[in-house]
Amino acid sequence: MEVALLGYRGKVGQVLAPALAAAGHSVRPIGRGDPLDLDGVQAAIDFTRPDAVEANVRAALAVGVPCVVGTTGFEAASIDAWARKAGVPCFHAPNFAIGAVLMMRFAEQGARYLPSAEIVELHHETKLDAPSGTAKATASRLAEGTPIHSVRLPGLVAHQEVLLGGEGQLLT
Description:
This protein is α/β, with parallel strands linked by helices. It has helices at 11-22, 50-62, 76-86, 98-111, 133-140; strands spanning 2-6, 26-30, 43-46, 67-69, 90-92, 116-123, 148-152, 159-166, 169-171.
C-alpha cells in the first residue's frame, strides 16, 4: 500500500517511515513546504502541526484518501465532520503508545472509585500544545473540570501522571 506520511521530518515521522517500509508499505514522504501530492496513495498519515493538520486532512478527504491523524492541539471535531460528510474513514488519536492508552483506561476505571482527580503532564519545551492532546483525552474520561497541570522544560521527555484521590487514599 502506498501511504502519504505528512510530517515525516518530525519526531514521530522519523520513527514511522522506516516502520511502514519494514511492514512492506511504500512511503511517500511529505514535509513542510512540499507539495501535498496525494495522487495514487491509499492512505494518509498526519503527524504535522496544529496549524497544518486541518488543511492536510481536508485535502485528503476531498480526494477520497482515508486518514490517520496523530497531530494534537486542534479541534478534532472539525475533521470528524469533514470525514463523515465525505464518507471517507478518518481516525484520530491523541497518543498511539500502548502505555498511554492503558493509562487512560486505568484512570477511567479508577475514577469510578476515587472521584477526585488531577493530571500532571510534562514535555520538552518545543511541544506545541499545552495541555497535550493526551492530557485532554484523559481528562475527558474523568470528572468534568478535572485540572490539568502542564510543564514545558528542556530535557523533559513525555510524561503524564494521573492522581486519583479519595478519603485517606491516593492512587497515581
